[in-house]
Amino acid sequence: MSGKRGAGPDGDDGTAGGTDGGSVPDSGSDAGRSTAAAAILAASGGGGRGAGTGRPVTAHLSHRVPDLGALELLLAVARHGSLGAAAREVGITQPAASSRVRSMERQLGVALVDRSPRGSRLTDAGALVTDWARRIVEAAEAFDAGVQALRGRRDSRLRVAASMTIAEYLLPGWLIALRAERPDTAVSLQAGNSAAVAERLLAGEADLGFVEGLAVPDGLDGTVVAHDRLAVVTAPGHPWARRRAPIDPAELAAAPLILRERGSGTRQVLDAALARHGGLARPLLELASTTAVKAAAVSGAGPAVLSELAITEELSSRRLVAVPVAGVRLARDLRAVWPTGHRPTGPARDLLSLTRARPAG
Question: What are the boundaries of the region Disordered (predicted)?
């Protein structure tokens, strides 16, 4: 970008240069340039020191430094020697460009551009300001490039933590859809119970989490992305498989069951549902995954409580039988969660949007 002054016929508005705050000598002499520099430094706070005090100026930069758009326009005027051509380059009308230059001149208190029918020419003060503006704009471009690089690094990976049922039965479909939208994003998935998901999010080890519990864990925000129900199931040979009447809550609570471990969303919902009925009896088996619980139930080890999402195939093939239960609510919400105050961005935001576009349950 050149800061050289020049004129080019363009049919500019032909108004005389100058501002409400007076004008600056327009000679190419050292005295003229020194006067222009002194005027601009005075307008901008004396080069960072209070006049005659030697103390740092405390006024906010936003009150005395033009915005980047105005500085980019001034650089375009310097390149083209024409306000109209500069306006076209930055994508605004010539009257808007003229108004922006006049506003910048009023803000700085110096004349920047001499306008005439032959074109627009920078004043000595305008040439100095253009030199400074170039450094500011180049620094802003470097800043923008750096931020884009950070966004690119952030968007190149996505760390997801999910409770077992969501990880096994819902996330695969959501991640396939995300892959179609973001083929260059590498996704890692950590599966565990809902308590472990919350721990990973709070430790900064995951960008987005999915849990199955009764409520959003402490320290997290969240939104419901799907609904689910728990079902009591047994192998076909178990006595409960032949029952005609539903099991009541007290009988369910008293029975040794194959259960997920404490901290899992399934266990939280079941514990809460049966708390008023004496609480759960000692588990027959306590296992750390939905797949393990399901396999134990299919083998005939005993009745189990599982998500309906996890047993569709086993129920249709009659390897498991659903046992009706009366008087207890076993429905639950499935949630996406993230640390409080840190709304998902980039790939995490896109994955969250896909869960709403492709609801389950």
Answer: 1-34, 339-361
Residue 220 pairs in a beta bridge with 339
Integer distance in angstroms from the first to the last C-alpha of the chain? 59
Select from 136, 151, 166 the last residue of a domain: 151
Residue-level pLDDT at 155 = 60
- Is 247:327 a contact under the CB 8 Å cutoff? no
pLDDT of residue 151: 67
Clarify whether residues 209 and 68 are in a common domain.
no
Q: Identify the burial level of 278 via C-beta atoms within 10 angstroms of its C-beta, where 0-12 means exposed, 13-18 middle and 19 or more buried.
A: exposed
Domain count, the chain: 2
Instruction: Copy the structure tokens of residue 288.
Output: 């750390």
What count of Cα atoms within 13 Å lies in the side-chain half-sphere of residue 177?
Answer: 16
Q: Which of the four pLDDT bands, split at 50, 70 and 90, describes residue 33?
A: very low
Tokens of 307: 């998500």
Could you count the other beta carbons within 10 Å of the beta carbon of residue 74? Answer: 27
Identify whether residues 206 and 144 lie together within a single domain: no
Confirm if 307 and 234 have CB atoms less than 8 A apart.
no
Residue 302: both structure tokens together: 């005993």
Residue 135 lies in a domain: yes
Q: Please give the structure tokens belonging to residue 107.
A: 């803000």
Computed over every residue of the chain, the mean pLDDT equals: 82
> Which tokens hold the place of 215?
């409520």
243 vs 21, residue with greater confidence: 243
Cα–Cα distance for residue pair 191/148, rounded to 1 Å: 31
CB 150 within 8 A of CB 129: no
CB neighbours of residue 137 within 10 Å: 16
Q: What are phi and psi of 4, to 5 degrees?
A: -70, 145
Q: Do residues 50 and 56 touch, judged by C-beta distance below 8 A?
A: yes
Question: Range of 183's domain?
Answer: 158-357
pLDDT digits (tens, 9 = 90+) for 276-315: 998 999 999 999 889 999 999 999 999 999 999 999 999 9
Tokens representing residue 280 in the block: 């759960």
**CA-CA distance, 337 to 161, in Å (whole number)?**
10
Count Cβ atoms within 10 A of the Cβ of residue 73 and give its class: 0-12 exposed, 13-18 middle, 19 or more buried.
buried
178, 185 Cβ separation under 8 angstroms: yes
